[in-house]
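Workshop exercise sheet. Pairs work together: one partner reads the sequence aloud, the other fills in the structure field after running the prediction. Swap roles for the next sheet.
Pair: D.N. / O.F.
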Amino acid sequence: MNSAPDVLILLGMLMLGMALGALLTHIRHKAQTARIVQELEAKCRAQTEMLQETQKNGSANPDAA
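Structure field:
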């Protein structure tokens, strides 16, 4: 019965491969999420700066409507 240890080794290798794949997928998703969050923060920061500029220019130059 030499095949039993071989099967156990193959199953162990399969489980380790699946665990490694799951770990790499998790890391990749975290990296993608971090990149998306950084992009959103940059957009919000840019919009906030534009709004502050508009408010500053609007209060300095009031229109005589």
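Discussion prompt: The radius of gyration is 28 Å. What would you look at next?
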